[in-house]
Amino acid sequence: MSDDLIHDPKGGMPRLLEIMRRLRDPETGCPWDIEQDFVSIAPYTIEEAYEVADAIEREAWGELKGELGDLLLQSVYHTQMAEEAGMFSFDDVANAISDKMVARHPHVFGDESRDKSAEQQVLDWEQIKAAERAGKQETGVLDGVAKGLPALTRALKLQNRAARVGFDWPSTDEVLDKIVEEAQELREVENETEQLEEFGDLLFVMVNLGRHMGLDPEAALRATNAKFTRRFESIEAALAAEGRTPKDSNLTEMDALWDAAKAEEKAQKKNAP
């Protein structure tokens, strides 16, 4: 019966669970899959989440279904290993997130009023999560901020947590002053260890500036990465039209091509409907 399910193109979730179970079978499964554990699979989980985000950012809707499937497989993989260890099942995972969503949305699934602003709903959400953390004996303000998050995202979450208890600058003016201070400190140090520390301090304050301005630092840097990629590819294309590569050019010429690509982008934005 399991073979019929595995080859059923409409087998849905039960099919995927059975495929994962068979891959991990110690006698008939895939040697590579059998050798994996939570730690070895975790990097793939993070990678797949980023690939989902990348498809969305590129508006590659034709790719999104496959990327979401890859991410779903990661949950199935971790759950299969947990089930083998007698920890929990896939149904337990699904029920746990369902219980959490119901508990965190009393204005939808309970008797609370939906007549409140999005900002108030965010505050209510944070209060519910704070109660959940207390139930886990996470009593510190910064407890529960995952260490495995991307550094910029974790910095933002740490700062948001601290700000809720009043540990925050009152305006962007103080943050900008701190940026100047941290940049000067970075300029003054020569030891590599100290440079790393001061550079980290500068990045941390830059995240704080974004937070005060209502900007997501991860989103901002992703956008700049994309912009850099577009403009550098324009340089490569311009040189390729002459049968050359960047190695055949120099900084002065490439700077001029960069400025041309930048000007073209601005013109396109200006003329956009």
Automatic annotation (TrEMBL):
<dbReference type="GO" id="GO:0046052">
    <property type="term" value="P:UTP catabolic process"/>
</dbReference>
<feature type="coiled-coil region">
    <location>
        <begin position="172"/>
        <end position="199"/>
    </location>
</feature>
<dbReference type="InterPro" id="IPR048011">
    <property type="entry name" value="NTP-PPase_MazG-like_C"/>
</dbReference>
<comment type="similarity">
    <text>Belongs to the nucleoside triphosphate pyrophosphohydrolase family.</text>
</comment>
<dbReference type="GO" id="GO:0046061">
    <property type="term" value="P:dATP catabolic process"/>
</dbReference>
<keyword id="KW-0378">Hydrolase</keyword>
<protein>
    <recommendedName>
        <fullName>Nucleoside triphosphate pyrophosphohydrolase</fullName>
        <ecNumber>3.6.1.8</ecNumber>
    </recommendedName>
</protein>
<dbReference type="InterPro" id="IPR048015">
    <property type="entry name" value="NTP-PPase_MazG-like_N"/>
</dbReference>
<dbReference type="GO" id="GO:0046047">
    <property type="term" value="P:TTP catabolic process"/>
</dbReference>
<dbReference type="Pfam" id="PF03819">
    <property type="entry name" value="MazG"/>
</dbReference>
<dbReference type="GO" id="GO:0046076">
    <property type="term" value="P:dTTP catabolic process"/>
</dbReference>
<dbReference type="InterPro" id="IPR021130">
    <property type="entry name" value="PRib-ATP_PPHydrolase-like"/>
</dbReference>
<dbReference type="GO" id="GO:0006950">
    <property type="term" value="P:response to stress"/>
</dbReference>
<dbReference type="Pfam" id="PF01503">
    <property type="entry name" value="PRA-PH"/>
</dbReference>
<dbReference type="GO" id="GO:0046081">
    <property type="term" value="P:dUTP catabolic process"/>
</dbReference>
<feature type="domain" description="NTP pyrophosphohydrolase MazG-like">
    <location>
        <begin position="38"/>
        <end position="109"/>
    </location>
</feature>
<keyword id="KW-0175">Coiled coil</keyword>
<dbReference type="GO" id="GO:0006203">
    <property type="term" value="P:dGTP catabolic process"/>
</dbReference>
<dbReference type="InterPro" id="IPR011551">
    <property type="entry name" value="NTP_PyrPHydrolase_MazG"/>
</dbReference>
<dbReference type="GO" id="GO:0047693">
    <property type="term" value="F:ATP diphosphatase activity"/>
</dbReference>
<dbReference type="InterPro" id="IPR004518">
    <property type="entry name" value="MazG-like_dom"/>
</dbReference>
